[in-house]
Fold each of these.
Amino acid sequence: MSEISILSLDLRPLLAAGTDPLSGVVEQASRLPSGARLQLLAPFNPLPLRRVLGQMGFSSQAGKQPDGAWRIDLQRDGRGLVENQPGPEDCAGLPPEATVWQAADGHHIDVRGLPMPLPMLAILRLVGGLQGGEQVVVHHDRQPAFLIPELAEIGWSLEPKGQGEGGELLFLLRRFQ
Amino acid sequence: MMFGDFMMGARSRLLPMSIPLRFFGAAVLFHIAAWGLLLGAAGDAPGFMGGLGHLLASLHFVTLGVLAMTAMGAAFQLLPVATKRPVRSEAACKAAFWLMVPGLLALGHGMGRGDGLVLAVGGLLVAAALTLFGLLVVDNLRRVKDMRVITDQAWIAMAGLLTLLVLAGLLVADYALGGFLGNHQGLALAHGVVAAYGFMGMMVMAFSFVLIPMFCLSPPPDVKNGQRAGWLAGAAVLLAAVGLALSLTPLVVLGGLLGLAASGLHLRVMFKVLKSRMRKQLGDSFILVRLAWGLMPLSILVGLAAAFGVAPDRTGPLFGFLLVFGWLLTFLLGVLQRILPFLASMHSVRPGVKPALVSALTADRPLRLHMITHIAALTLVSAGLAGQWVWLVRLGAACGLVAAVSFALSVAYLVNSLRKHLNNQMQHVEK
């Protein structure tokens, strides 16, 4: 009987250094054979990454550990099911569908793969809870044209910030001077 | 990526503002003309069962001049942003406009004066404009793999557009060539049902899936029920139209019942969106949207009463009015109140400068007056048609005219405010 290969990756040091681990994980996961298992450790539930891996045939389950970290168990079974994924009904409070983390250049929010208008909803919720001179970096898979008037109405500007490591579009949000 | 690249990227999908604005501007003027024609022909409205005249022209100024014109401007502007695929040709969008406006004026003139030749020429121009619009939308939709609900409903709307154009062609030819159709009135009713529910109604449902959650800041609507509502509505329109064309009342009734089920499902999805919204204050525009939602099933119920032969000289005209001026026009005006300032703000984005605020572009007083007088117009004309009181229809149409002028004033205020903002931006950049 052949042994099922397991790859474990701890994403926490990379994220703490402000590096997006998506492209690295995708590259390593793409080398795994059918049936292989992948285990990830992250400070949050990395839904965009799980959705991307889901498109590569990885089904995943996520659970919060006693120390606050998230453990994501994935298997390349060809089905690409993303279990324990919050639905639209869980929209109260801060955006659970989007991944939010803090880095040296401010808050980051990853809204890739979310259906319209959840990205707008998640971003407005995040900036609505911020105070002072804080800024936000948005990781997006489209130009958020509809978001700009809503942000302007609450005193925030949106500027392009180039591309992220995963090829996504980055936008910097900050208050108008 | 520099800011300019971002704007270029956004603008590759956001058409120049002059394109959607010309459609919206024309819709505002046809809105005034439609109520004006109804006011002038109010005496013919009670008991109206079809036929050429100013009432028919008024009805088409709403359906084609306001509803289709706005759908064209909104689809050219919003569909590419939503689907992430640009419109194939800006020149084709402009051509559709320049076919539509003179075509509709000729069509209205031909209907009003009973001139078959002018009617045929106008009809051909309008048909060409709508065909061009349909081809541009189909070209965009066929490249979309996701967004199933919206694309399903938009595909059904395009099938409705094709059917209504064929039926309209038959009706116009019948007028121009002296009457070869055995059942002109049945085909005219089928054309009306396909146009209002099959084309405009399906466009309303498709746009609702994008716009209502965006305006309310709500999670996306229920996809499964949205698809079911779309397919049910499509089947309902097909059954009702075939039943009307062949004078088969049971089919019409079955279509009406399926239509009621479809509208119930659609409204259930929309109310769930409203319930989970983040924006609590929705403003006057949503009073109109909610009213329109109520008028959607009401129009079907009154249509069913007419099909059953319950006072058809009262329920027949009332059905047409509640459907076109009630549900469709009211919904569209509610949405336009929100979307026009929103689109103008999107187009005012410049590097390093605050865009024009939606709140600063919204003319509250004219819009409040518009809402009140529009609701008064619907109430009075409906009562006048039900009671066959001409004076009440006339009073209601006068209210509608005031509403249309108020709406036009709000649009003029928006354009003026935007122009001032852009001039200030220019001065800021030059400094």
Note: Residues 48 and 112 of chain A are 6 Å apart (CA to CA).
Amino acid sequence: MRRVWLIAWHGFVQHATSRPFLLGVFLPMFYLLLVGWVPNASQSQLALLGSPIRHFAVIDKTGAILPVVDAALDNDRSARALLALTNYADEHADKDRLRQGDPKLAKFLLEGDPDSPRAIDELSAQGGAISTFIALRPYLKPGAPRFIEPPTRFFRIDLPEEILASDDLLKAAQPYLSAKQLVRGPFGPVHLWAILIVPKEFYDGTERATYLSDDLTRPFLRDLLRTALDKELKRKSGEALSLTPQSITQLLGTAREMQSIDPDPEHLGAVTGLRQIRVLGANIVYFMLFFALFMTANMVVMALVEEKSNRVAELLLSCVRAETLMAGKLITGLLLALFLVAVWVTTVLGTVDIFFPAAKVIVSELSKNISGVGQVFQLTVFFALSYLTVGAFFLAAGSAANSISDAQAVVAPATLITMPICMLPLAVAYAPDSLFARFASYVPFFSPFTMMVRSLSSPEGIDVLGALVVSLLTLWWLIRLVARVFRANLLRPDSPATFFGFLRDLWRAPQRG
Amino acid sequence: MGNAVLELEGVSKRYGDFLAVDRISFSAPKGQIVGLLGPNGAGKTSTLRMILGISPPSEGRISIFGKQPGRSVQSRIGYLPEERGLYKRMTAFDTIVYFAKLKGLWSRRARRRANELLAEFGLSHVKDRRIEALSKGMAQKIQLATAIAHEPELVILDEPFSGLDPINQNELEAAIRRLAASGKTILFSTHTMSHAERLCDRFVILVKGAKAFDGTLAEARAVVPRTVKLESQSDLSFLEGLNGVTKVVPPHPGTPHWEIFLSVGTDPQSVLAACFEHGVKLTRFDTSAPPLHEIFVFLAGGNVEGLEP
């Protein structure tokens, strides 16, 4: 065992300090920085990609619409703040204490319909989201984070004089709407997302309002403005019918409250934004693990081929048995893969924390896939079993090669064969507790890969145990098989190796004994 | 042999249909330097690999320290492979330490041995230099140091002199002599006869996988027909009738050099006596022993591709 560890540690140090490996380690962080920085490098690029705040302008020829639009924007801010606050209370409030201590607030935040106009009015009556949060604070669970009001979605700005003075408004606005030119915003240049033109005869009903934008696929601002104008017209109609302002307000505010219930909030089959992020997160995590696995397995195989070609392998075999050498190489690869994943996780978290604090919400949501030491341990165990399965197969293939070109001839088809085994479990990410997922957990070879994905969603204990037994038995059988091929091939002089020759060796291995 | 460290009995090695080693038997007595000689493809490396336990023999028996090759004797053997390869990015010191540890030494002792060997080979100044930055001669010495760092009782060297310049060859020869003087048994393969002739106590000559000779240099010379070189202005054709003379080669016109070929076991002094009897005046009588290269050529039946004098 000491010699296995010596070989493994030596290989690990050799690889972990090599330039190709270091490149592989730090490239993801570099890409992340690149993806984050390039858009920031140019305001114009940022504008093209779409700022989270949509800046728009209104050309109000009636002279009465601007207050209506501003009131609609205030209402939207309040609605979003209320939704965020009810979600916050649902997650972080001690509900029993809240119900006992402030039944009215509990009913408002825990049972109310945050989308209803009455609830928004009630929020305003309580002094807004921050005042409501202050009232909620005594009933929060220990360690609950501070409530942060969601940022404004839409911001009204003034149009540049150049557009206002132009005879051809469409032509003048086009470079701004397409972000080729920027307009002055409250904190610097911004992209003009849309222009609302309200004609003088709007109230008569003879002229329509016009919404100009370079992107009509995102309708939120348009819908908000349409609803605001619609309400304003109804209000005017009420006045024409001699209704009192109170009656008009009551009429416009009439809405049936709707209760929203998710019967199984943890079920990933439900399509919600955050859950999609979680599924996507599972896929990204799995893909990174999969990439780490193949990258390190390939590195170890190439190093073995080099040792064969320069006769270091012969020297090693004069010191240790072929099986010891193989075990050492396998552990080298496993250490490298674990190290790679650890560095990736650390650098990605660090990069997000330092450079992209706004993305912390996404990282936080992704991290919900892995909660607790037990789950991390389970994931690590199945990752290790997956690596050992692929690594053993690769090492046997690599042992047949006497040169780098031989290795490519053998390892490339071996990669193609093993890839479906590793990729198929990706389907499990969408339904980790489905019958298919549970079945795949017990199929030899697929088992550790499937459980790697399922580990991200707390599978049943019996499945974990069963998959562990299947994976270990498969690995035991595979290592015994490939050890024979490894031993026989390591110093075999006949070259070049072929993939079919390798398969033949595997087929005959049980007869070698 | 009673004190044999290594014994091979009827050992063969097959690679598919190719017979690389054909039923060879020999032994290496303790403390001796045994040369495994043969041209390229004679089966030397295959034989060494079987002794090391790297590849099992197809038939026959190998005994090292009374045991089968493998794990139980691995730490008592040091090995220098034919084509030298070390980890290029490792330092000289770390390389010796790593292989010493693989051979069973604990870290502290491995480090001490590495320092000792670097000093012995005059390489202390390159201790922390990477292998890729060393000259070929230096790398060769590091390789030898890795082979003997764990103080093995049997040292196996596969073509240790190949690719070295004469100065490094001499230094390596000296190192091998020091090892032998310290009681190690050394088995080394070579196709360069001069090194073997200077170093070896015993020789095993392989030709096409089969053993052609096993013994000392004196024994080798005894099995090879002798040649007597004479210089005389007289006609020596009468020697053709002498018992034991197989051939008389007359001198080229204008030269006095005669060459007399004798059958195995014939005493060269009988030629001198016959010359005296015939009253021949000799200016030269040379019965010097044949060099190992000639012995090898005779034993190999001319099959000496890749052999160096």
Note: The mean pLDDT of chain B is 83.
